[in-house]
Backbone:
């Protein structure tokens, strides 16, 4: 695949540089990093700038973030070795990188200094987020089998008594192109684990995400991935145990999402999501959409395939706002295919009156239209009697909703299927009674 070819060619370009002597000032600057070079013989100036190096922790609670930032700017390959835990006590801006490899074998732990991060985390206006770390540039590889530790327990406890607390996303890929994040673990993010914002050619593979609270306060809003204004994103072969959406496709002006191919239609975000094992989540979610007045949201050409969902609130879900003072948009050509669900509250969901009561939704129907939706080969068990609920807004706001090859059961008795304000097609349509009209 071109993505990988471009990435590895970019990472290895420095190998052919000509021989020149390094400058004394550059060597002195590098020596202050406490970095151990993998190949210490003499190098050119350019070779030293792009050397492979190993970054070890200062220890005793001292902050490793300045040295990490310098290493990422200076070295082409940065190794955090097994058994090393870097203490990250200040925000990380590693944007504008080119041809970099972070070989994370050990751990990067973000110090849970809540006052510092709440005041200094990098702000993102989208859904009022902040982040520990922004990573951007071209041709970047993050791998090594190590761990990004968000130290989220302090945040879970603090949020329980202060619901307005801004909590950091662990890693944000911002304006990044040709990035691979593979074979790493991420634990206890305070907020979302990953935000992909304005990225292109992004791959996550073999990633394990875990958010688990050790107190009575849940690990809230710990989405696995949120994809926003990004193109050609791959999320595959990963395991997620968290407290919110497994993957969420966020809208933006003239943005669409495709989850099965890597074609490049104009104004579309091509995202492949496949072979995920999601536990405790809020599902694979399109939206929520149409929340903000004056904004027209578009998500189209989405396919999520081969998903296992266990002990979760939702399985395959689309959610759009209704009511007074909301926005508008379109959700088009969405496919959820080959979902195996176990003990899921709502295995199949369309909620076009999201966060809106029935009276307000009837008076102010959703302005986000939903069409060309395919739920195909959905099997497993719900936690309650209702296994599918397709609740569209009044006013013909849903069209061409297709249901095929359903094999869903309730814990006891007959599984219940419900629908409203929609005409269903497909071989599973007969499982639904006549849809109510509101």
Residues:
């Amino acid at each position: 695949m071109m993505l990988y070819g471009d990435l590895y060619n970019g990472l290895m370009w420095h190998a052919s540089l000509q021989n020149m002597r390094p400058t004394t000032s550059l060597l002195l600057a590098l020596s202050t990093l406490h970095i151990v070079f993998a190949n210490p013989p003499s190098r050119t100036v350019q070779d030293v700038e792009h050397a492979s190096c190993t970054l070890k922790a200062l220890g005793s609670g001292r902050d490793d973030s300045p040295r990490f930032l310098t290493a990422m700017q200076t070295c082409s390959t940065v190794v955090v070795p097994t058994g090393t835990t870097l203490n990250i006590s200040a925000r990380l801006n590693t944007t504008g990188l080119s041809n970099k490899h972070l070989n994370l074998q050990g751990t990067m732990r973000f110090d849970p200094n809540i006052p510092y991060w709440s005041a200094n985390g990098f702000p993102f206006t989208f859904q009022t987020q902040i982040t520990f770390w922004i990573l951007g540039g071209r041709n970047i590889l993050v791998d090594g089998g190590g761990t990004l530790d968000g130290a989220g327990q302090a945040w879970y406890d603090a949020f329980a008594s202060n619901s307005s607390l801004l909590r950091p996303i662990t890693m944000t890929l911002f304006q990044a192109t040709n990035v691979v994040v593979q074979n790493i673990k991420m634990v206890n993010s305070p907020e979302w684990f990953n935000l992909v914002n304005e990225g292109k050619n992004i791959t996550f593979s073999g990633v394990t995400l875990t958010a688990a609270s050790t107190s009575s306060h849940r690990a809230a809003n710990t989405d696995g991935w949120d994809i926003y204004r990004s193109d050609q994103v791959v999320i595959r072969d990963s395991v997620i145990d968290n407290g919110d959406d497994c993957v969420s496709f966020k809208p933006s002006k003239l943005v669409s999402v495709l989850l099965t191919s890597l074609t490049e239609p104009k104004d579309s975000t091509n995202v492949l999501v496949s072979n995920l094992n999601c536990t405790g989540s809020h599902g694979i979610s399109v939206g929520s959409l149409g929340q903000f007045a004056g904004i027209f949201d578009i998500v189209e050409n989405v396919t999520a395939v081969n998903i296992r969902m266990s002990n979760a609130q939702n399985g395959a879900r689309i959610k759009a706002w209704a009511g007074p003072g909301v926005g508008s948009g379109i959700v088009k050509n969405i496919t959820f295919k080959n979902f195996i669900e176990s003990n899921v509250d709502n295995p199949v969901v369309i909620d076009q009156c999201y966060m809106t009561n029935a009276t307000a939704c009837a008076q102010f129907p959703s302005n986000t239209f939903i069409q060309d939706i395919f739920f195909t080969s959905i099997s497993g068990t719900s936690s309650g009697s209702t296994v599918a609920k397709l609740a569209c807004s009044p006013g013909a706001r849903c069209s061409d909703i297709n249901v095929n090859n359903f094999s869903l059961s309730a814990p006891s008795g007959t599984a219940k299927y419900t629908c409203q304000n929609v005409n269903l097609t497909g071989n599973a349509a007969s499982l639904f009674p006549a849809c109510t009209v509101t």
Q: What stands out?
A: The chain has a mean pLDDT of 87. The CA atoms of residues 94 and 135 lie 5 Å apart.
